[in-house]
Amino acid sequence: MSESTTLKSKISNLIRQWEGPLTRELLLEPGSFGLGKVPEKQKPDATTTVVCGFCSTGCGLNLHLKDGQAVNLTPDTGYHVNLGMACPKGWEALAPLRANDRATKPYVKNSSGKLVPTNWHDAMTKMVTNFKSIQEKHGDESVAFLGTGQIVTEELAFLGALTKFGMNMLHGDGNTRQCMATAVVSYKQSFGFDAPPYTYKDFEESDTMIFVGANPCIAHPIMWERVHLNKNNPEIIVVDPRKTETAVAATQHYPIKPKSDLAFFYGIANQLVEKGCVNKDYVDKYTTGFEGYLEHIRTFTPEVVEQESGITIEEQAKLVDTIAKGKKVSFWWTMGVNQSHEGVRVAQSMINIALMTGNFGRPGTGANSITGQCNAMGSRLFSNTTNLLGGHDFANPEDREKIANILEIDVKHIPDKLGWAYDQIVEGISQGKIKGLWVIATNSAHSWINQKGFKDVIKNLDYLVVQDMYHTTETAVLADLILPAAAWAEKDGIFVNSERRLGLVKKVSKAPGEALSDFNIFRLVAEYWGCGEMFSKWTSPEAVFQMLKECSKGQPCDITGIKDYQMLDDRGGIQWPLPAGTEKFDDERRMFEDGKFFHADGKAKFLYEDPRKPLESPCREYDHWLLTGRGTSSQWHTQTRTKKSAVLRKLYPQDPYVEINASEARKMQIEASEWVWVISRRGKIKARACPCYHVRPGQLFMAMHYEETNVLTFPSFDKYSRQPSYKACAVKIKKEEYWE
Ligand SMILES: Nc1nc2c(c(=O)[nH]1)N[C@H]1C(S)=C(S)[C@@H](COP(=O)(O)OP(=O)(O)OC[C@H]3O[C@@H](n4cnc5c(=O)[nH]c(N)nc54)[C@H](O)[C@@H]3O)O[C@H]1N2
Ligand SMILES: Nc1nc2c(c(=O)[nH]1)N[C@H]1C(S)=C(S)[C@@H](COP(=O)(O)OP(=O)(O)OC[C@H]3O[C@@H](n4cnc5c(=O)[nH]c(N)nc54)[C@H](O)[C@@H]3O)O[C@H]1N2
Ligand code: SF4
Ligand SMILES: [Mo]
Known about the structure:
Elements: H1 3-19, H2 24-28, E1 47-51, E2 60-66, E3 69-75, H3 88-91, E4 107-109, E5 115-117, H4 120-138, E6 143-147, H5 153-166, E7 172-174, H6 181-191, H7 201-205, E8 208-212, H8 216-219, H9 221-228, E9 235-239, H10 245-249, E10 252-254, H11 261-274, H12 280-286, E11 287-288, H13 290-297, H14 302-309, H15 313-325, E12 329-333, H16 335-338, H17 343-356, E13 366-369, H18 376-382, H19 397-407, H20 422-430, E14 436-440, H21 444-447, H22 451-458, E15 463-468, E16 481-484, E17 490-496, E18 501-507, H23 518-529, H24 541-552, H25 565-571, E19 574-575, E20 604-605, E21 624-629, H26 646-649, E22 657-661, H27 662-667, E23 675-679, E24 684-692, E25 699-703, H28 709-712, E26 729-735
Parallel strand pairs: 6-7, 6-14, 8-9, 8-12, 9-10, 11-20, 12-13, 14-15, 15-16, 21-25, 22-24
Antiparallel strand pairs: 1-2, 2-3, 4-5, 4-16, 17-18, 18-19, 21-26, 22-25, 23-24, 23-26
Helix pairs in contact: 1-23, 4-23, 5-23, 5-24, 6-17, 11-14, 11-15, 11-17
């Protein structure tokens, strides 16, 4: 048999083995590749609980099956997260699976530049040949990948191990860089490990909740429902330049000037110190660096803070008073903080206040980063991008040895340094250092900052592979090769939610055509690449889960106490940590109750720095701030999924829109719904005007769900986390008849 025939038969065997009992006839029949294998325990017409595949809340959804296939769903009343609730996306989660632009076969670019369907053998051969020849010509590091926080943990680990250990890549990052990098770095620096401390019960137990750059009404509606279950009549405080849906429902709103958070929180801390709110006992026992911090914040007087943030001295005093009175004060932050040129220090300015006032480790307290995507937390620990599997360090020889032993690979395959971050990979492409790119479950050509720049840059690539559910995304249409992926509910694995809860995703729907789970695609790539042997233990998601457990052993995220998938199913998800030998544990647990942090001295660090101005802010010509973010609870990111639901489509504006202050709009004679130009130094786009009082004069807001938004954004990054500062750039707005 020729090599290619052997490979072909190996592949069909593998597919047969992974996808259930497929006969040769079935294999040849279109639509049979992803044939759902009903979990053994499960009756074909039963109901089974699966974690939602959109946001990081991680709601439990009961999927109702007929002949082993999901036909409908209802939120699970018994699941610890959502207690029977779901947002519109959750209710409509099955609709995107049935869209008619699903990629059902691999697509390859033909000689006239058109993407045409092909078979897996051809696709794999092309991918491997092209990437290998690029590596031969330009070095191993000239091929990179961009991953995601939206595939299961076992797949993320597979991708990270395959690319870095099997395919000799060094550079690979994920869309979690756009999203959570700031939280990761701030926690690592402050606590010694990336450990969001809270459990959702804290929403119910707090008496003072401060939401900073977070709009949970829209972005985390079911967490917001948990806030409503709070019986303490809590103060709900929102710090956000916009009067968001959350701000409207809050008891206090502080509309700070964009990107003035750092000065604002240093000032609030300074006044808390003056008011005698320092919990000296907590600070002495559990922290280091307080003296320097005290000295640092002293210059942030109420007058300076008013000048910087626009919040008056009286308003500041009110907030200080509320925090001082609170017995259980909690801070909750999301993208208004993370997506900033100095996000790490802003996050730490809240961590510092929580530590200083002893609002830590008790019910209803903490400095809590709310995560974004369904598995951003899995990606943070197990994607092999920002750390070696399980929160380990690529640069540490002992860590490399440990992981190599668990995976039974030669330690020489594990790189001894971190690869580039997302923006450095884009820069590397622009400079011709990266020539091949594999994009998995992210739509960079829409979501990356300064999109036109990105689209121009990727023309420099010799070979672009995109692995997605759909062949129509803004990124897929630019590819040389599209690999058709099965979606959420068409495969097994684990998502980790915002409160560190591992929950199960199950295969309860048949993937269309020849689409394969990302897991199986990675298996195929390994076979064709010639490193299949290295992954011979990686036979199923659950087998990988068992290895990841071993990787976590002894780490703060130790999950060796979770026996198997069944245990996760029985318990309604389990939060990390759960070390082996834990006999009894609560279903809702927070961290740091014992005041022990993960730095060598066991203490948390006060970290601080002088605020810096953003690299771009409004000027005479570009006289408005452009704020960006989530638009409605019915839209998900670049809309590849949510726009496929007829129900969801009815719940949000179809055209891009720009919120403008109503009195400004009146002065400019801009009417509701009329088309206007929004122009930045990067480009100009058209959007429908939406005059309202949610934004202040001098500010505009656009939702990220429309491709137009990132034509305008300005690429600047936090220097520690390298997260893009999506939330603020300078633009001008003009009526439609205007033309430069
Ligand atoms: N419906 C829906 N839900 C989602 C998503 C979605 O696409 N759709 N995406 C998920 C993901 S991945 C993420 S990361 C989360 C994001 O969740 P959030 O971060 O809550 O949502 P955003 O709207 O991006 O940003 C929050 C707020 O930051 C404010 N902001 C802007 N600049 C500043 C500033 O300088 N300071 C302060 N304090 N605030 C500022 C904005 O006005 C905005 O209201 O949502 C998750 N949930
Ligand atoms: N201006 C502005 N831009 C932003 C933001 C902002 O606030 N403002 N927010 C940023 C943030 S926080 C985020 S998280 C990013 C999100 O940006 P993206 O990651 O680009 O957004 P998605 O639309 O979620 O892209 C996910 C892709 O994966 C595909 N997909 C879904 N499930 C699977 C699967 O199981 N397997 C495979 N292979 N593919 C799958 C989907 O079809 C889709 O194409 O956007 C960032 N961009
Ligand atoms: S809140 Fe998030 S996890 Fe829950 S149903 Fe909505 S999208 Fe899914
Ligand atoms: Mo995100």
